[in-house]
């Protein structure tokens, strides 16, 4: 990594008061994304990865409380005023949501949804915004873009809608793209196309990417680094290749073990992780994975553990890490 | 599509006939007849009977109604036995007042309700939302016959900004016309504002949780823009429905304020006709109001297509 990272998240805590108590959705997370770099954020449902992304984008409901620092190009987004943040959102950081059927406004034509950001941030005229929109749609592989601009979202297929969302995210040439489960709502056959498109535009535009997924295979071949989250905390961080080759945290290992692969022997049960996700209201003391872990040692229930460096670009928060690397490499889908 | 329009038209006709039958039936239950009103309290029973025969009121109710309906379907609502005036003409003379009053009331209600709903939905639960909710609850509890005198007292008698009563026709100048219409319109608006506000507030809060609103905010669009460009339209379906029902109700239901403020509208006409047992005029007005109601509701249905492109597509298919 050269120079200052583009995005530095430091000690981010996001607490959301609910009727059942305060949900500690994100409880002390650090992240770095360098310019043009791709970071995967992986974890199962409820691990806090989406809340973390929304906290970075300031999209959480008003009663949610975020503390810590979200430094974007050296400026803490959490302390910026609303007008200043509006200058960053859409223009320098853009977000792609999970379900394109819900993240495009059903009563607004594609053209307005694509061009409103450009016209506001870049001050483009109607015609140049229109041309720019055409160019972007062509780039993301939407056929007959002139007609698509006049369409409403329901007139497009799911894959087309997500392509439109990607084009929309690119409109102002952002430095960082946050993609929150961008393919979860799509057909399996379309997922790969959209992921490859995302990776392609990321490299061709030199944009940094935060790719959030519950699916390790999505992240595997498409990111430089990966952060594994569990119950609002980081379990393991490192170079994607390294983490997949030699996972050190027991949770990462279990997660990899639960992923079906081509080599998986037929009619043998998948390795599931026993138990359920730790309660975000009343998390277990110490390592939050410890109640589900087969390899606990006495210290696991004491406060901590912190991330410890175990490799060149590899840190793990585990008192009894996997020291022997399992063979084989995960094949990206 | 054609079948559904025909079914709809048949349904509407049935509604109009039912409404007029009910009105005539209810009025016939009341004692007295228009003959007594014309001839005066001291008329001999023989004279009243003669007058009834002359007006055709001695015939059975169903035949009276049948005769009237036959002519009404041909567009002739009959002539008032009391004033000798053509009922259609009487309605057309009074209509502009009621229509202006209703439309003004509806415009006031919708625009104020949208403003209040946007303000409360922007941050539900904070003090501003609570204050607006409290005011809206209070409005809901104030019927026009209470709001009217209070408004007259405050803004006509005390402040002197508006005339106490009476109607200035539009030919007398738009300013004077609006000044005479504003207080009565406001008096009927209060409950409408309250119900519109509550409905739209709830729908807006729901819409603001949608991903496409988050996506618009993530594009860095300002809050007001997101509210009006992205959230308001998809939130307004129920409001449009309710506003349509309200407009129908207002056209037939401004009786109280028309009497209170001395406005020569349909409400005054119908109330005078009921007192005089002028069944022909009452029937005419009731049918007219029912038809208006049905037409307004049909327009509301059509307007969904403008609000939501998905409805447009379904209708075309």
Q: What's the pLDDT, averaged over the residues of chain B?
A: 86
CATH homologous superfamily label of the domain at 7-82 and 214-262 and 270-316 in chain A? P-loop containing nucleotide triphosphate hydrolases
CATH topology assignment of the domain at 7-82 and 214-262 and 270-316 in chain A: Rossmann fold
Number of helices of chain A: 11
> What fraction, in percent, of the residue positions of chain A are helical?
25-40%
Average residue-wise pLDDT of chain A: 86
> Which percent range describes the beta-strand content of chain B?
under 5%
Query: Cα-atom Rg of chain A, whole angstroms?
Result: 20 Å
Instruction: Supply the number of structural domains of chain B.
Output: 2
Radius of gyration of chain B (Å): 24 Å
Would you list the SSEs of chain A in sequence order as H and E? EEEHEEHEHHHHHEHEHEEHHEE
Organism (chain A): Kineosporia mesophila
GO molecular function (chain A): ATP binding
InterPro entries (chain A): AAA+_ATPase (IPR003593), ABC_Ni/Peptide_Import (IPR050388), ABC_transporter-like_ATP-bd (IPR003439), ABC_transporter-like_CS (IPR017871), Oligopep_ABC_C (IPR013563), P-loop_NTPase (IPR027417)
Main location (chain A): membrane
């Amino acid at each position: 990594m050269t120079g200052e990272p583009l995005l530095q998240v430091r000690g981010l805590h996001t607490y959301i008061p609910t009727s059942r108590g305060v949900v500690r959705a994100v409880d002390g997370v650090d992240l770095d994304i360098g310019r043009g770099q791709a970071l995967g954020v992986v974890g199962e449902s409820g691990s806090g990865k989406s809340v973390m992304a929304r906290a970075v984008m300031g999209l959480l409901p008003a009663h949610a409380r975020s503390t810590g620092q979200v430094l974007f190009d050296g400026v803490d987004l959490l302390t910026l005023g609303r007008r200043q943040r509006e200058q960053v959102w859409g223009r320098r950081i853009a977000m792609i949501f999970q379900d394109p059927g819900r993240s495009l406004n059903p009563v607004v034509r594609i053209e307005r949804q694509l061009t409103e950001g450009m016209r506001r941030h870049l001050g483009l005229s109607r015609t140049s915004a229109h041309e720019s929109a055409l160019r972007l749609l062509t780039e993301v592989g939407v056929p007959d873009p002139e007609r698509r601009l006049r369409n409403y979202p329901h007139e497009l297929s799911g894959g087309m809608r997500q392509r439109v969302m990607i084009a929309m995210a690119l409109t102002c040439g952002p430095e960082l793209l946050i993609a929150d489960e961008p393919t979860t709502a799509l057909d399996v056959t379309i997922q790969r196309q959209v992921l490859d498109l995302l990776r392609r535009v990321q490299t061709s535009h030199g944009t940094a990417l935060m790719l959030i997924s519950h699916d390790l295979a999505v992240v595997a071949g498409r990111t430089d680094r990966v952060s594994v989250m569990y119950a609002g905390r980081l379990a393991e961080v490192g170079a994607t290749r390294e983490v997949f080759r030699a996972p050190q945290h027991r949770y990462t290992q279990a997660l990899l073990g639960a992923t079906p692969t081509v080599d998986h022997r037929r009619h043998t049960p998948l390795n599931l992780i026993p138990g359920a996700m730790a309660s975000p209201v009343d998390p277990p003391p110490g390592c939050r994975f410890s109640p589900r872990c087969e390899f606990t040692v006495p210290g696991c229930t004491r406060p901590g553990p912190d991330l410890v460096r175990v490799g060149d670009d590899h840190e793990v928060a585990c008192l009894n890490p996997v020291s022997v690397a399992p063979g084989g490499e995960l094949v990206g889908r | 599509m054609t079948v559904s329009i025909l079914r709809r038209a048949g349904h509407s006709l049935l509604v109009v006939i039912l409404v007029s039958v009910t009105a005539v039936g209810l009025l016939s239950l009341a004692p007295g007849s228009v003959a007594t009103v014309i001839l005066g309290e001291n008329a001999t029973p023989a004279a009243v009977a003669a007058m009834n025969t002359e007006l055709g009121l001695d015939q059975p109710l169903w035949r009276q109604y049948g005769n009237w309906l036959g002519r009404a379907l041909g567009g002739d609502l009959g002539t008032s036995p009391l004033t000798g005036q053509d009922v259609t003409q009487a309605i057309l003379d009074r209509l502009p007042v009621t229509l202006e009053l209703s439309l003004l009331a509806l415009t006031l209600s919708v625009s104020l309700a949208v403003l209040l709903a946007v303000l409360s939905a922007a941050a539900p639960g904070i003090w501003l939302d609570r204050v607006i909710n409290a005011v809206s609850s209070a409005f809901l509890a104030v019927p026009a016959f209470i709001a009217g005198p209070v408004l007259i007292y405050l803004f006509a008698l005390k402040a002197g900004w508006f005339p106490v009563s009476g109607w200035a026709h539009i030919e007398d100048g738009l300013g004077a016309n609006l000044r005479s219409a504003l207080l009565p319109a406001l008096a009927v608006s209060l409950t409408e504002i309250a119900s519109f506000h509550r409905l739209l507030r709830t729908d807006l809060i729901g819409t603001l949780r949608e991903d496409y609103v988050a996506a618009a905010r993530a594009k860095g669009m300002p809050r007001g823009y997101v509210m009006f460009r992205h959230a308001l339209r998809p939130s307004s379906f129920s409001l449009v429905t309710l506003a349509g029902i309200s407009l129908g109700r207002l056209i037939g239901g401004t009786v109280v304020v028309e009497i209170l403020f001395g406005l020569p509208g349909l409400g005054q006409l119908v109330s005078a006709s009921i007192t005089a047992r002028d069944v022909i005029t009452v029937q005419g007005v009731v049918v007219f109001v029912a038809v208006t109601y049905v037409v307004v509701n049909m327009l509301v249905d059509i307007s969904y297509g403008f609000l939501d492109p998905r409805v447009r597509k379904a209708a075309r298919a």
